[in-house]
Write a structure and sequence with these properties.
The complex is a heterodimer of chains A (293) and B (329). By secondary structure, chain A is mainly alpha-helical. Chain A has 11 helices and 4 strands. Chain A has a two-stranded antiparallel ribbon. Chain A has a two-stranded antiparallel ribbon with strand order 2-3. In chain A, strand 2 (130-133) and strand 3 (136-139) form a beta hairpin. The longest helix of chain A has 29 residues, at 3-31. Chain A starts with a helix and ends in a 14-residue tail after the last helix. Chain B has a domain at 33-236. In chain B, 77% of the residues lie in helices and 1% in strands. Chain B is built from 14 helices and 2 strands. Chain B has a two-stranded antiparallel ribbon. In chain B, helix 3 runs antiparallel to helix 4 (88-113). The longest helix of chain B is centred in the first third of the chain and has 27 residues, at 2-28. The chains are: A mainly alpha (293), B mainly alpha (329). The A-B interface holds A 28, 32, 34, 82, 85-86, 89-94, 96-97, 99-104, 106-108, 110-111, 221, 225, 228-229, 232, 261, 263-264, 266-267, 270-271, 273-274, 277-278, 281, 291, 293 and B 57, 63, 112-113, 115-120, 122-124, 126-128, 130-131, 134-135, 137-138, 191, 236, 240, 243-244, 247-248, 251, 276-280, 282-284, 286-287, 290-291, 294-295.
């Protein structure tokens, strides 16, 4: 396999990580919580897509949209039920709650859908095509992943940079108390952040189902960790950082599998994480905040 | 005051010995079969893990998500040692060697990463544990994903008792020492404690190393009791399980960790009959506990001190300020 092919594969994997990492980074930026349930929202997105494609027999794009809507609702619900009552509790209490929610989603899904792996239906029509030029293969699924990731990211950037609610999000993540004093509804802003992140995770879930063809209730755990690594790598709380981090982790993983030993790809990702944390804990694009007494 | 302290220690040891004797007796008359003993073993191992993580997370305030990594080092080192020397001294050497290896890795990991704060440290330790797991998954001597089976079984109730009580006593005494006070001051305010002349890096690394050491012991006991280990047993989920015990019991409460370890094991055993829904209930319970009691069962209080204060008061018929003073120690 030549280098460019690896780059293409790495970028499509990276797109998925980037989409998940965005949810982690936004939630962390706004309430300083490692939302462990996020990777399970991504898993649920994959299952919703699976149901849409196999039971409702609708196309890929409507399935992605439905998964995004379901995940948005789920994200808001989780935030309202599990995290909101703990707004003033210690951060570790919220973290344990997040772990509890994550376990609930994983094992709840395992109870409903059983633990076995399910296969996405084979793609038909334009989705089954692949394009070859000069030794490179680009599948329609990869094009779909690139296209939807780029569209979603542009949309996200637009929402965060250009709209009132986006401004509110940035304000709350900068200083929650000050934002509240300025008349920003902090609670609804936090809910909105969860909604945005969950929608992206839902889309990522369906895309992964289409790309890798198999889903299971525990599929979120490892990609979730890696997406979090991606978010830390790019500078947690920084939206462009999560995108860069996601693509970087995707590329690293594909290159380690391609040119090294695929058994060690996860170890390399985590080693990079530790190095980054030691050298520049705030991440690539993060700002160093001075210590205040 | 010294007299009361001495008597209290005596009383504590008597109660512990009585507990030990009762269980040992029940083992002899076969009331406790291998199934119940398995539950007891898991509880003891969880107590060791939780108490040692509590030293790192609860008392020193350093958020670690990689405790299972240290546990796996202890487990594998002990297993490999006892394979080679399947004798009691070999087992003891295996446990100690496992613990020392875990402590060394703990110190090596701790030195650079403990400069990080809060969540960053949590992520770094998580990454470290994953790396350890992947290494074990790919090494020849650990037999990869299949794991090691038929590890010589040496652990029985007396060994579990010795190691569990030893861990609890050593760590609670460490916390009462000057070093332990330094740990607590770091948790309360790192900058303030640094300006009071505490070498914060050294204190944190020491606490981390001690925690890793005992996690290694827990792993060694696990390997030797359940005679089967594989890398997947020591994944992220295991670290989370231990953290849940610590937070559930109360951060900074040794007795809380002990109670939580026992309670969670009992709950999870009771839920055994509904295998499929077990984890769902467990998860719901976890969320509910955190929603209604975010500080954990005990907060940062200790049960034994209060209990023994009252006990001593009854014994001597005088609860005075003396008892109050003694209770604080």
């Amino acid at each position: 396999m030549n280098l460019l092919q690896q780059v293409i594969n790495g970028l499509s994997l990276g797109s998925i990580y980037a989409l998940i990492a965005l949810g982690y980074t936004m939630v962390y930026g706004i309430i300083k919580l490692i939302n462990f349930a996020h990777c399970d929202i991504y898993m649920i997105g994959a299952y919703v897509g699976y149901l849409c494609l196999t039971k409702l027999h609708i196309g890929v794009l409507p399935s992605i949209l439905i998964a995004m809507v379901v995940c948005t609702v789920l994200g808001i619900l989780i935030e309202k039920i599990a995290y909101k009552p703990l707004r003033n509790a210690t951060r570790i209490a919220v973290l344990i709650t997040a772990i509890g929610v994550s376990m609930f989603l994983e094992y709840g899904m395992m109870y409903i859908f059983k633990a076995n792996v399910r296969a996405y239906p084979p793609m038909t029509g334009w989705m089954a095509k692949s394009f070859r030029f000069s030794g490179l293969t680009l599948t329609s699924q990869q094009i779909l992943i690139f296209a939807s990731t780029i569209i979603l990211m542009i949309l996200l950037q637009f929402i965060v940079r250009r709209t009132r609610i986006g401004k509110a999000m940035r304000a709350v993540s900068l200083d929650r108390d000050a934002a509240e004093l300025m008349g920003i509804n902090v609670d609804s802003t936090i809910s909105f952040t969860f909604a945005l992140g969950s929608a992206l995770a839902g889309a990522a879930g369906v895309l992964v189902g289409i790309y890798y063809n198999s889903i299971n209730p525990l599929m979120g755990a490892l990609p979730g960790l890696k997406a979090f690594v991606a978010a830390v790598f790019g500078g947690i709380g920084v939206i462009p950082g999560a995108m860069i981090g996601g693509y970087f982790i995707g590329l690293v993983e594909v290159f380690v599998s391609g040119y090294g030993n695929s058994m060690y790809k996860d170890a390399v990702v985590f080693a990079i994480l530790i190095l980054i944390l030691i050298i520049k804990p705030s991440g690539l694009l993060g700002k160093n905040t001075g210590e205040k007494v | 005051m010294k007299g009361i302290m001495k008597n209290r220690t005596l009383l504590k040891s008597l109660i512990l010995l009585a507990g030990f004797a009762v269980v040992q007796l029940l083992v002899f008359v076969d009331v406790i079969d291998s199934y119940i003993m398995g539950i007891i073993a898991r509880t003891c191992i969880n107590i060791i893990l939780a108490v040692s993580l509590n030293l790192i997370t609860g008392f020193t305030g350093q958020f670690s998500l990689g405790h299972a990594g240290f546990m796996s080092i202890g487990a594998y080192v002990c297993a490999i040692t006892t394979f080679r020397y399947p004798t009691i001294p070999g087992f003891i050497a295996g446990v100690l060697l496992g613990a020392i290896c875990a402590a060394i890795v703990g110190a090596l990991v701790g030195l650079p990463t403990l400069r990080l704060r809060g969540d960053y440290l949590a992520i770094a330790t998580l990454g470290m544990a994953e790396i350890i797991r992947i290494l074990f998954l790919n090494m020849k001597i650990t037999n990869g994903a299949a794991g090691l089976i038929n590890i010589p079984q040496f652990v029985n109730w007396p060994w579990l008792f010795i190691f569990t009580v030893g861990t609890v006593v050593l760590i609670s005494n460490y916390i009462k020492s000057a070093h332990g006070r330094a740990c607590i001051s770091i948790r309360e305010d790192e900058i303030a404690s640094e300006s009071m002349g505490i070498n914060t890096t050294r204190t944190k690394v020491t606490a981390f190393t001690i925690g890793a050491f005992f996690a290694g012991i827990a792993g060694a006991l696990y390997a030797s009791y359940f005679f089967f280990i594989k890398p997947d047993l020591f994944g992220f989920q295991k670290s989370i399980d231990v953290l849940v015990i610590v937070v559930f019991g109360g951060m900074g409460s040794i007795s809380g960790s002990v109670i939580a370890a026992v309670l969670l094991e009992v709950i999870s055993t009771m839920l055994q009959s509904i295998v499929e829904l077990r984890m769902v209930f467990y998860a719901i319970m976890l969320v509910i506990i955190m929603l209604f009691r975010p500080q954990g069962l005990m907060g940062s209080k200790e049960l034994t001190v209060i209990m023994f204060k009252e006990q001593a008061g009854k014994l001597f018929g005088r609860i005075r300020s003396v008892g109050g003073k003694g209770g604080k120690a």
